[in-house]
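User: Can you predict the 3D structure for this chain?
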Amino acid sequence: QVQLVESGGGLVQAGGSLRLDCAVSGIIFSIASMHWYRQAPGKQRELVATITSGGSTNYADSVGGRFTISRDNAKNTVYLQMNSLKPEDTAVYYCKTWAYWGKGTLVTVSS
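Assistant: Here is the predicted structure, written as structure tokens:
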């Protein structure tokens, strides 16, 4: 079956960095567009970043210039490098492809 497993979340001070990983199995990873979403407490889930099978990327305005999405097709893994983190980046971060979601990883940014 399809599985997406996120890791790398945690507590970080404002201005710090984290890298999130999403390991994917059960699909032909190399042809899949991959997405990172996040959901902050009391807010709707929002799209953060997308990377296509060809490597094209797109970002939400709120994270552009600070976050970088990348992929390693040999490892069936997508990454989200998050720099210059702000308290408003606090959320559960989810990996998604097609109709499949991971369970999420919590990122908490302290001020």
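DSSP finds no helices and eleven strands in the chain. The radius of gyration is 13 Å.
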